[in-house]
Amino acid sequence: MLNFIRMRAERACDYASNSVHIRATNKQEGINRTFEEKESQDISTRFRAGRA
Predict the structure, then answer these.
(1) CA triplet 16, 22, 26: central angle to 5 degrees?
(2) How far is Cα 27 from Cα 11, in angstroms, rounded to an integer?
(3) How far from 51 is each of 4, 12, 36, 38, 41, CA to CA, in Å?
(4) Is the per-residue pLDDT at 52 higher than 60?
(5) Helix/strand/coil for 52
(6) Is residue 3 predicted with pLDDT exceeding 60?
(7) 3-class DSSP state of 12
(8) Please, what is the Cα angle at 46 between 39 and 42, to 5 degrees?
């Protein structure tokens, strides 16, 4: 019985850990995507202004 409870607790901890990791990864990807979009806009603006 205690083994079963311990296994369930470990599984719950793994789930929570994975969930936090996934959210952190998604947030970082969002930051990277925003930066890439801004960078591409800056490049296209400079290109149109003849400064590329």
Answers:
(1) 145
(2) 24
(3) 66, 55, 19, 17, 13
(4) no
(5) coil
(6) yes
(7) helix
(8) 15
How many residues in total does the chain contain? 52
User: Could you tell me the sign of the dihedral formed by the alpha carbons of 41, 43, 48, 49, in that order?
Assistant: positive
pLDDT on residue 51: 57
Q: Residue with structure tokens 């850990």?
A: 17
Residue 24 to residue 33: CA distance in whole angstroms: 14
Residue 49 φ/ψ, nearest 5 degrees:
-85, -5
User: What mean pLDDT comes out for the span 23-47?
Assistant: 79
Q: Under 8 Å CB-to-CB from 43, ≥6 apart: which residues?
A: 52
* Of 15 and 44, the one with more pLDDT: 15
* pTM (two decimals): 0.44
